[in-house]
């Protein structure tokens, strides 16, 4: 999970997952759009940075939501092995996120140094959260120790490599594009998926700590993130953020394609 706001280091109470989800894909899209904040109508240059970010990545969000394994899962058609492989990939990218944020803090140019308190708050709040994901793996019947020692899928490695490259060779504010994907749109998707997965696999609520807390906690921080990026006043920084967010949507989507391509659908 990615939170650019101070939060507790302790694992959250497990929130009840939604007990009723629409099964028709258009209804999923409507719920997803509302949660991700797509419904913006103000035109032209008066748009804030966050509003531009939402609007200019709308097509990328639609593409993410149309990925077959996501649509299947929202409809309750998911294998336990697919869920476990998803959690394994989440473990790998969450484990590497704090080091990337530390890099971002170091690389921020002088004009963006005002972001450093928010970045420092993230580092303090998010350290060691990968343990929650390992706990989910164990509760869902997987091998947490094997997941810890596993090699990430190439798609997962590519997303984190792009984050590193953006910070080191591009504009470090572009890393906030990954934060946007994981903290807004992905959180909205998690909110929809948690109930479907729990019912389809007959899992205890303790096996969905990542998805349920990700949805509740990250949606709660959307306002903080919005206020943060709205302070960005340099057009090159705004464009770097928007471009990176679009690319992170593609890279995050590639992880789901890779999970689907693993051929686990229909297995236990």
Walk me through this protein's architecture.
With 268 residues, the chain is mainly α. Helix content is 67%, strand content 0%. Helix 6 (97-107) runs antiparallel to helix 7 (116-126) and helix 10 packs antiparallel against helix 14 (235-261). The two termini are 27 Å apart.
Keywords summarizing the entry:
mainly alpha, 268 residues, 14 helices
Question: Care to give the gist of this entry?
Answer:
The chain is an all-alpha fold and 268 residues long. The chain contains 14 helices and no strands. It has helices at 25-36, 49-56, 58-65, 68-74, 80-95, 97-107, 116-126, 130-139, 144-149, 154-169, 175-201, 209-220, 222-230, 235-261.
Euclidean distance between termini CA atoms: 27 Å
Average pLDDT rating: 83
Compute the number of helices: 14
Q: Roughly how much helix do the residues carry, as a percent range?
A: 55-70%
Cα-atom Rg, whole angstroms? 18 Å
Structural class: mainly alpha
Provide the β-strand percentage band: under 5%
Low-confidence stretches: 6-25
Largest sheet: none
Number of strands: 0
| Overall morphology | globular
